[in-house]
Amino acid sequence: xxxxxxxxxxxxxxxxxxxxxxxxxxxxxxxxxxxxxxxxxxxxxxxxxxxxxxxxxxxxxxxxxxxxxxxxxxxxxxxxxxxxxxxxxxxxxxxxxxxxxxxxxxxxxxxxxxxxxxxxxxxxxxxxxxxxxxxxxxxxxxxxxxxxxxxxxxxxxxxxxxxxxxxxxxxxxxxxxxxxxxxxxxxxxxxxxxxxxxxxxxxxxxxxxxxxxxxxxxxxxxxxxxxxxxxxxxxxxxxxxxxxxxxxxxxxxxxxxxxxxxxxxxxxxxxxxxxxxxxxxxxxxxxxxxxxxxxxxxxxxxxxxxxxxxxxxxxxxxxxxxxxxxxxxxxxxxxxxxxxx
Length: 341
Ligand code: ADE
Ligand code: ZN
Description:
The protein has 341 residues and is an alpha/beta fold. It contains 17 helices and 8 strands. Strands 1-2-3-4-5-6-7-8 form an 8-stranded parallel sheet. α1 (5-12) runs antiparallel to α15. The longest helix is centred in the middle third of the chain and has 19 residues, at 114-132. Adenine binds next to α4.
């Protein structure tokens, strides 16, 4: 299929991805391959059967399938291959920097060691940096449906790998699991030097975003869609320059929004919010970073100026050093000037 001029523009533009669950890049084909190698049997006859199950009415329905898939990952090699396959895919999309989430508890709770998980992912990221030139940060997420004690245990396990992990995040079932439940473990994580992030306001109310800001002291909010319900909160996010990592195709697939024609990026930008476009769990939601950009550009008739702004935001909101941010923002501007005809 040939790309439209605007899609070609998107494809060639350097971009960063800041909201990506590595377990959410597990493609059905790879699931079958890894399951076979590990002597496991998937409860689906074929890739098509499995893909047919990818119809979700809400976050929890997705998470149930996502955790079942993730349970096929057992050996360090599995985590390595998963991560490297993601990097190869996004390299072809001109993604030059990734900030990758991983969920240790999904694996340690079923007997896979923390070391196995982190070593496999990290080695692939190092190889990706060397061979593909993609820089990276790792973000360890706590599962919010589990007790805070379990998060504390995970934090302990992470300490020997502190130099590999930029920040801690909070993901999984949002409703009924507010950020306040994790106040103490985030405090300890920040004392240890980790940056704090949290999924908030995906399905949960604006109040959860306030809690993430005021109790967890996050520097970035993942999703954050529901901030628009609270004008004071929008002003506060803009004032504190807290970026929101939005995930358009995820939001459609999980029915956080009805369709992309209503997607609030224009309104959010107008209100001074720093927003970025991301893929969340691309193997489940119909596309990697460029497909998210393609869908948004089409639904909202975005211009090259809008798209270049979003790419620049992705670097601005990243955890890259200031000099690296400046370098990539200048490269996006250069690209825009050369291709804005
Ligand atoms: N884990 C993986 N994807 C997620 C999402 N969209 N929200 C919360 N937890 C997640
Ligand atoms: Zn997410």
